[in-house]
Amino acid sequence: MSTRYGRVAMGLHWLMAVLVIGMIGWGMWMADLPKGPERGWAFGIHKSFGLLALLLIAVRLGWRIGHRPPPNPALTGLETRLANATHHLLYTLLVLVPAMGLTSVNFTKYPLKFFGIPLPKPGWPDETLNALFSSTHKVLAWTLAALIVLHVAAAIRHALRRDGTLQRMLPARRGAE
Fold first, then answer.
1. What Cα–Cα distance (Å) separates residue 136 from each residue in 45, 86, 132, 140?
2. Residue 30: CA atoms inside 13 Å, Cβ hemisphere, count?
3. For a disulfide at 12, which of 29, 60, 74, 116, Cβ 3.0-4.6 Å?
């Protein structure tokens, strides 16, 4: 039995990594923009990629349900439990962060568009609900960012230990397998 992830799992992992890290950076940048067309454009892009992230995490969760992660013999029992807990929390936040952003958008006066295509909004303009879900979105996004830093730190630790854990999620070099 292979201890490496398959190509689809690797592809979804790295695509989500680029998307989520980009979204966090974009969100931090756009938050300080003054009100006006540039801010509206930036928020529109953020919303579109947030919807894309929500769709992609649904695909990733569907894939994960049907394809269990391969065993990692390099981990101790405690490390396995910590890795599992961290991955469960990552998946939870990867769902909740964009879901809270989308919910927040449903309570603004602004239209919801997916790369320019108008989408229906089940909500209504309500500043209180918008502020609640927007604040929740921000807190969860910062929590996700901190967890990503922890995840990267663990990957670096495994790389320094040369225990093969990092290589499980990297494409194999020709002739390496």
1. 20, 20, 6, 6
2. 19
3. 60
pLDDT in tens, 24-52: 999 999 999 999 999 999 999 999 999 99
Residue 169 pLDDT grade (very low, low, confident, very high; cuts 50, 70, 90)? very high
pTM (2 decimals)? 0.92
Domain boundaries, the chain: 7-169
- DSSP 8-state symbol, 70: P
Burial 59-80, CB ≥16 within 10 A → b, else e: ebeeeeeeeeeeebebbeeebe
3 falls in which pLDDT band (50, 70, 90)? confident
Q: Which residues contact 130 (CB under 8 A, 6 or more apart)?
A: 104, 107, 108
